Amino acid sequence: MSIEELDHTADVMLRVRAPTIEALFSEAARGMFQIMYGECEGDSRTVTFTLHAHDLEELVQELLSELLYLSEVQEIVFCKCEVTMVGMSLTATATGIPFNPAQHRAGREIKGISFSGLTIVKEHESYGMDVIFDV
Structural domain of residue 130, as residue ranges? Predict the structure, then answer.
């Protein structure tokens, strides 16, 4: 699995690779929170939710948007997100730690997840995705 930040004119673009769709979605979530807060460890807070969509791109956009919303509203820095999928439905269990302004202000604020350029492709034995975060 890998996360690579690519050059983008105004926003932040990540290229994510993983062996399964579930792992790809989990890595995209981890990459988003690394942009926002840097490295994270801990699991004192847990949130579980289910989402449905028409295709994989919509589903990952919904996942990342929901995590971003929950992080802001519940003041959680998510360190890990486990995803299980059945068809175009997913259940996510995100774990993390309470937001601490002294510790977590070093990153970049993400305002949203763009559909622009959001594509998921199967590459030999793995999956890849480019995702743009509006900052």
Answer: 2-134
